[in-house]
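Researcher: For the annotation table, I need structure tokens for Putative 3-methyladenine DNA glycosylase. Please keep the output clean. Sequence:
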Amino acid sequence: MTKSPDRTPLTRDFFARDVLEVAPDLLGRTLVRREPAGTIELRLTEVEAYAGEIDPGSHAFRGRTARNGVMFGPPGHTYVYFTYGMWHCLNLVCGPDGHASGVLLRAGEINVGAHLARDRRISARNDKELAKGPARLATALDVDRDLNGSDLFGGPTPALSILHGTPPPRDLVRSGPRTGVGGDGAHQPWRFWIEGDPTVSPYRAHAPRRRPSRKAT
């Protein structure tokens, strides 16, 4: 008999830990998205850790800006950014207040409200692809910059919250380099995923953008 996911909400203290503790511990947790159209619930299967000022791969590596300010705390809030002029990505702020760090939510399995996600992810070939990748996850959950700074613990029905869910056995948790991160941040094994889960996105190494060559005249 399969045990139902634990619906006990996580606490703010869960997020007040080091990002490298929080990130793998988010696997198997239930992300809840509440909106007027209905509720979506997603089991997290892939995440990445970003360690702020000590991490060359982090948006906060060079200090606080208007864009990344929410990453500096307090923990338990969302950091949403816009990338490539097309997509949003959803992160959860963690660590002590005043020290920037966060976990990028890369992929998950939608168990409740899949019909809502299908309306937004019409290119998905099946339900396993609805949230297979960070941009797809944010699109499926209708997450944009309006949710930047949202408090996971902001009242009885916050727009986003996290339940205990069903963490996987430790021997199924894998780690490796983060997807698409280059430079000095390329090799930290700070991407975590559930081995064998079909919703986990494929790894892609960083590919530097090439400037068009100038032809001699």
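Researcher: And a one-line annotation?
Model: Residues 6-194 form a domain with the 3-methyladenine DNA Glycosylase; Chain A fold (CATH 3.10.300.10).
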